[in-house]
Amino acid sequence: MSENNDQKFVYDFTEGNRDLKDLLGGKGANLAEMTNLGLPVPPGFTITTEACKVYLESGSEPAALRDEVSAHLDALERQMGKKLGQADDPLLVSVRSGAKFSMPGMMDTVLNIGLSDESVNGLARQADNERFAWDSYRRLIQMFGKTVLGVEGELFEDALDEAKAAKRVASDTDLDAADLRGVVEHFKAIVKAETGRDFPQDAREQMDLAIEAVFNSWNTDRAKLYRRQERIPGDLGTAVNVCSMVFGNLGPDSGTGVAFTRDPASGHEGVYGDYLQNAQGEDVVAGIRNTVPLADLESIDKKSYDQLMQIMNTLETHYKDLCDIEFTIERGQLWMLQTRVGKRTAGAAFRIATQLVDQGLIDEAEALQRVNGAQLAQLMFPKFDENAKVEQIGRGIAASPGAAVGKAVFDSYTAVKWSRSGEKVILIRRETNPDDLDGMIAAEGILTSRGGKTSHAAVVARGMGKTCVCGAEELEVDTKRRRMTTASGAVIEEGDVVSIDGSTGKVYLGEVPVVPSPVVEYFEGRMHAGADDADELVQAVHRIMAYADRVRRLRVRANADNAEDASRARRFGAQGIGLCRTEHMFLGERRQYVERLILADTDAERDEALKALLPLQKTDFVELFEAMDGLPVTVRLLDPPLHEFLPDITELSVRVALAESRKEPHENDLRLLQAVHRLHEQNPMLGLRGVRLGLVIPGLFTMQVRAIAEAAAQRIDAKGDPRVEIMIPLVGTVQELEIVREDAERVIAEVVAETGVELKLALGTMIELPRAAVTAGQIAEAAEFFSFGTNDLTQTVWGFSRDDVEASFFTAYLEKGIFGVSPFETIDKDGVGALVRSAVEAGRATRPDIKLGVCGEHGGDPESVHFFHEVGLDYVSCSPFRIPVARLEAGRAAAEAKGSDSR
């Protein structure tokens, strides 16, 4: 980014507002908004994300930045009546990161900047509290040393532990001023030994280095990993907030806390949060000291509590959402340090959205935008069986719901290593910190013995949708010995299986069985949302889903191959079948008929094999059409290579060799082996499959078409309403489709003549090859519908073999940022998506009434559904379990588009 000479890089808190998140980051924009609302915010200023972008691209700060910072610092000093770092009454500031999107704990913060060997004494005199001053100084050296100078954090932690051990106390609050003076000297010696320089005594140097460190923290490994996990763009940069310090560690009449306007775990209204007396903010979120519930503040400091409740109500009404608030009380004076729209669990998201509608703060369209398909999917996961025999070993705070089972591991490295080996793990720590992010992502769930609902583990887990139990104090976690000890003395070693319930906070030894979630029972019709005893969460899901169904344009179908799956899909809200894979009907006992077809040496043998398959196929289709009566069913003709229906070449070779050595009869196996060799291909996914099979093996596709047509006629005779679409796979040129279509129409006409039943069977194709997408206008002349097979289209566009690349190099591609997400998970809009878009336009130009859908796995991916709405598809099709997710996202896409149009 080139630097504009007129560009403004620094904004006072009085100059911004919440709409400037792109420029001021979420923290800076919301500090400005609270300042505008007249709330008690310590004065300060924000360095913009644009300054960060210049720094990251050029390696140096914008030329104008230092002068702008100096001007705002001068104004801050005049306002506060003290100067940064002055010896007698120093102004101290915090330097905190603040990106557009919340990234809790991923980037850097430094508190108490401005303290030095001289100013610490001035602070002690000004505060009349020597212990407080030296505690603040040791905190600065510890945070600055780790964050800015890159000193290993454990060195400071060990030194502090040594001081506590020497005095035989358990908490740092039990260390007096003399003890802390010794800790400071030890910390300074660590800095000198590790960096080769003294801890900087110049306050402006401290601030400038801290600002630069915050810029650099945007590109730390943990920040990049978090952005990939949360799909946050990597080019946004972070703002930097410089704020005058207020102190929660001045004694018992001071403290710090985090509050939520509603419970982020359940969504229920009430007083939720954590408070810690005589502490700074980092103590709360780090989870290193166990907090008291926010409600206890009422008895500790009633005046501050009442003021905080009033402010929380003001903020929730203003933001019209759950707010997450950080505050400090300095000798009875309440200060607001941050607010943001709070991260919440999936269940809380649905409950809060409907509550806010009922309170008149938002409408149904906005409520729909407050939830998403990923959250709905989380609600559909199983939960622990309450009636199972279990061995409870502890209980903590229910920080993020879910039922997680796995082997106990005690560090991030092991969690990642075991997870990559296919093991399910539970990451157990005393408390987590940002460096544990890798392990938190890899684990099924997180368990900590310290911290509360606002600790790092809880906040990050909720954001990721991970099950989490925090503050299980009765469990003693020993990470060095890799074990956990229960209150009864039982020892859980690394590798032992544990189960954690993020909805109750209970911890169990061993694997606890699970049962379906009430949300799944609702979708399957076993729980009625209108019933008096219906679960509150189910009611909320029902209301939002009902609105999504009313406003969505995209219809949602299912990928289903049998009547059982079709019936379940219909209960989940499917509006038809978008993909019935007929190859699944050829497996099991029917494989013998396929073998006979492949081994046929004459037309008569081949016809006999096809004749045997016909009634079996017809029965399958009758059942399927009955299950989906009145709804469209798209049947794909046989697609995979024929060798997939034959025995494994190695096993068959061994079988033949053994038979020969034993002089046993093996003529049939020998013929099979010859056929397997004959059909073997180096790259079968690009070989004899799809439409090519129908053209090369006479009668194969016409047998399937006849089975479909006869089944449809039988259903009509039975007063049914089959709406059948026949789909020809892997077409690359219109000529292929024309030949198959001509044969299909002939067979359908024969069935009509034989049964006397009028049939209207649509004929179309899959668009799964780049050539098909490019020539879609021509292909539409012979196709009544297109269904985009985005799995194969992604493989052929990228030149990837899905079965191979995801295990071999996708991890490296994700880590290097080549992919933000796997193109098999979310559609590649620039490549595959561009082909889909152009094929839609070309197909409709040729045949305006052509029906367009997608049946690849992208049909159930939330982000991809929005793309398919945008390009104008008529429907998406996905696995039955993902149908509710697709319905919700189709509604969100429509509401979002309507909102954009109205703006």
Explain the overall architecture.
By secondary structure, this protein is of the alpha/beta class. Helices cover about 45% and strands about 15% of the residues. Strands 12-22-21-14-15-16-17-13 form an 8-stranded mixed beta sheet. An 8-stranded parallel β-barrel has the order 24-25-26-27-28-29-30-31, surrounded by 6 helices. Strand 9 and strand 10 (about 335-340) form a beta hairpin. The chain is elongated, with a radius of gyration of 33 Å. The mean pLDDT is about 90. InterPro entries: ATP_grasp_subdomain_1, PEP-util_enz_mobile_dom, PEP_util_AS, PEP_util_C, Phosphohistidine_dom_sf, PPDK_AMP/ATP-bd, Pyruvate_phosphate_dikinase, Pyrv/PenolPyrv_kinase-like_dom. It holds the Pfam family PEP-utilizers. GO terms for molecular function: pyruvate, phosphate dikinase activity.
Overview in brief:
The chain is an alpha/beta fold and 903 residues long. It has 36 helices and 31 strands.
